[in-house]
Amino acid sequence: MTDSLTEIVESIRQELTRLNDLRDATLARSRALTRSCALSIRAIHRHEWTEADALLEQARTEAKAMVEAIAAHPMLYYTGYTQDALKELVEAYLVNAVARGLPFPTPGDLYVTGATYLRGMSEAATEMRRFVLDLVRRGEVNEAERFLEFMDEVYSHLVTVDFPDAVTDGLRRHTDVLRSVVERTRGDLTMAIRQEQMRSALLSFEQNLARYTGVDISIAEASLPQAPFEEEERG
Fold this sequence. Notes:
Layout: H1 5-45, H2 49-69, H3 74-77, H4 80-100, H5 114-137, H6 141-158, H7 165-168, H8 171-213
Helix pairs in contact: 1-2, 1-4, 2-4, 4-5, 5-6, 5-8, 6-8
């Protein structure tokens, strides 16, 4: 042990400098990853599948590069901005899988921990509300039901994950948010289905009335109360 304190501190300083540079690079990569995921979800909503595939592949490549660069530094891998970006990757891939009927990726496919995968799964289920509302507006209420079914399935799984927040990285809060979104979406979709049933009944009545009286009376398209849909900003 012949090193002086000056030499020891200098070696530590160099190590911390490298770590700080890596931290800055990881933060930049996490921002790029988050952006790619957001753009891919936008493309999925617009049914721009080619662009969505390209953005998803780009996001996965960015995630791989980010994770490999910090593989030897758990303090950077488990930090908030890194896991939040990886959570967005999970959300984007699951939204794509549900929208297109594709197989679900595993945590290993996306370089994430189980806890991060579950949080991303929760946010993917929350994103399904937008699909439901868009379909209801187009009058495709039957198609909207499968998205609500996915929301229900995710929630039913998440409520069984009963571990401390220190282990699940705050999953309980995400589960509570999802429960609220599922309840509101179910109410909105139920109202839309009942309105559609009422329109069908009125149309049938019109046709029968016209058949037996010879009078063409159009009441099926009369104003019906609309579901009080709310638009939410993405969190």
